[in-house]
UniProtKB/TrEMBL annotation, chains A, B:
<dbReference type="InterPro" id="IPR026289">
    <property type="entry name" value="SBP_TakP-like"/>
</dbReference>
<protein>
    <submittedName>
        <fullName>TRAP transporter substrate-binding protein</fullName>
    </submittedName>
</protein>
<keyword id="KW-0732">Signal</keyword>
<dbReference type="InterPro" id="IPR038404">
    <property type="entry name" value="TRAP_DctP_sf"/>
</dbReference>
<dbReference type="Pfam" id="PF03480">
    <property type="entry name" value="DctP"/>
</dbReference>
<dbReference type="InterPro" id="IPR018389">
    <property type="entry name" value="DctP_fam"/>
</dbReference>
<feature type="signal peptide">
    <location>
        <begin position="1"/>
        <end position="30"/>
    </location>
</feature>
Length: 364, 364
């Protein structure tokens, strides 16, 4: 199995005659060229799951490159700009970033479409769209003018619809509802009369407890449990707005181009694996946390929005997207690609995963 | 970003004084140590999707190692032993294999449990079990006495229940049914009066056309379309018996131990990524092929086994597994681990993927 090529053998023979250099320093010539990359992440230090994706990626890259790649991860407590990751990586202040594409929609509107969309694809469908359905090329089209490369950075799977204090039985119940729900899903709810707000994570629990807000969405059991929301808003609604939230690795294109091809491939594969791995890690963490919630917090009730509410949300969602498409040819191209892929992929999901899960006894 | 260490700089300075060696041959010292690995796969040459997983893995490993890893892939037309992969890798005749764990159950019974189980976990649940729920350690326990390492090697997602000529409306309809359905699922059906058989892939279409068999299962639209079964048995039943078929990379432990740590990590990550990638590739291929089937073959009808039939299959399945567990302490340990994990993971899947998919309009 192990083969030393004839060139290498010759070099070894010649080495015997070179007394200036020891074998150790000699072989370190290629191995010691270290590339140090700096990565800024949106998350705070030790943020679970999301932060594990960057650590996992960096550890794989370092080991696979035998130490030639060294990635320093700066959390938001260090760089102080959780939502400045796009700008810092674009400017070359950082070589890499870890964040989420939809955070940049105020700056570059069409970045919105590369994280997840309400009523959109689930994780397996969306990865298939990225890697086989044209998604990566469309993402490149959006990021390339900013000298940035963007890669999938970890999926949460279906996010829960959020924690509520009162049941939502009709569209009227959304009227005036104060809910922490940022981004595009917030716009959808605003169209139905709700008052979406954004509040810093550290203040969310108090805001919910003091009824400053009536409801909020976060992620899913794996990240929600430690936030304690279930103690003050025990109605846990199932998801509609983020069926496959995909985080993002950003790369400054000049930093990327400076790397030798083998290290580029090591990084490409490490990012790709870390992204899939986070999807699986979050599935595990959610299963564990949900079991804890079921055992220790019997007040929690799982609720689903009634069909009339979901239909109204979907109508509002479609109207907003139609506006986007009408105003921007690139947006139209991306939205058309996603809609077409979703239709095709969901037909298959319907007779595979959905049919299978529905044929099994509920595991309660 | 790019940093040349001081050691490397010193070596470069010294190099100027060494006239015996050119810089090119010098730097090739470390880079030219090529490790050649031979991989035997169960599949024939150019077998789609399954065969792409090995090619994808080998290409990533070669690029990431800058050519230091060279993997030669031998398909079954070369080694002539599609079901001899376990033995050939164990004996060191091949360094690696690509196959499926459940093929070895006649040789090492407890290998059965590391591919997929009827009524078992779906892909996200099973990957979570492998990587976070103790699955990898249990698999190592089974393979390690054979000097083999086993890694996930690509998932098909939910496999379809197969192509039938007549409807199955009751358990009685299974009585005497001649069906190509190999492995453990065949044993389950045998308990219900069916006659499971195995037939070489090349003869399947003719056997079905001539009514030598009444039904068969293969994989799913992505691999079934080119086989043409839909032309002679147009009832396409949804799946129950292989909800997350995971292929397998095998590694001879001595071959593995001889590799430097960086190349081991490159291979570990390349196998892990290729495995996830195949899951996504098959989801895409199935969506595409299913669209073709819907458009071009209007005779195809999707069917689900009635609840009474599924319940009888589940009862037969549980009885067989209880026998396995009663006869073998290791089997009991693995089955208990899977049952416990499935229960926990499915509770989460039920309020995430399942609830979401059921809340969406059926995509037809």
């Amino acid at each position: 199995m192990v083969t030393v090529t004839s060139t290498a053998k010759k070099v070894l023979l010649l080495l015997g005659t070179v007394t200036l250099l020891t074998t150790a320093s000699f072989s370190s010539y290629a191995a010691d060229k270290v590339y140090r990359l700096k990565l800024a992440e949106t998350w705070g230090p030790n943020f679970p799951i999301f932060g594990d994706a960057t650590k996992n990626m960096a550890a794989m890259a370092e080991k696979m490159s035998n130490g030639r790649l060294q990635i320093r991860i700066d959390s938001s407590n260090k760089h102080k700009a959780p939502f400045g990751v796009f700008d810092m990586v674009k400017a070359g202040q950082y070589d890499m970033g870890h964040s989420a594409s939809y955070y940049w929609k105020g700056k570059v509107p069409n970045t919105l479409y590369f994280t997840t969309m309400p009523f959109g694809m689930v994780a397996s469908e969306q990865y298939a769209w990225f890697y086989h359905g044209g998604g990566m090329a469309l993402m490149e089209e959006v990021y390339s003018p900013h000298n940035l490369l963007s890669f999938p950075g970890g999926n949460t799977g279906v996010q829960m619809g959020g924690w509520f204090q009162k049941e939502i039985n009709s569209v009227d119940d959304l009227n005036g509802l104060k809910m922490r729900i940022p981004g595009f899903a917030g716009e959808v709810l605003a169209k139905l009369g709700a008052s979406p707000t954004n509040i810093a994570p550290g203040e969310l629990y108090t805001a919910l407890e003091r009824r400053t807000i009536d409801a909020l969405e976060w992620v899913g059991p794996g990240l929600d449990l430690r936030m304690g929301f279930h103690k003050v808003a025990p109605l846990y609604y199932t998801g509609w707005h983020e069926p496959a939230t995909e985080l993002q690795f950003l790369f400054n294109k000049r930093s990327w181009d400076r790397l030798p091809e083998d290290l580029q491939e090591i990084l490409r594969v490490a990012m790709r694996t870390a992204s899939y791995d986070m999807y699986i890690q979050n599935a595990h963490a959610s299963a564990e946390a949900w079991e804890t919630m079921l055992n220790e917090y019997p007040d929690i009730q799982v609720k689903q929005f009634p069909e009339s509410v979901l239909t109204a949300m979907k109508t509002a969602n479609d109207a907003l997207l139609a506006e986007h498409a009408a105003n921007d040819a690139q947006a139209k191209k991306i939205l058309d690609s996603q809609a077409e892929y979703l239709k095709k992929a969901r037909r298959w999901t319907t007779i595979s995963d959905k049919a299978y899960l529905n044929s099994q006894q509920t595991a309660e």
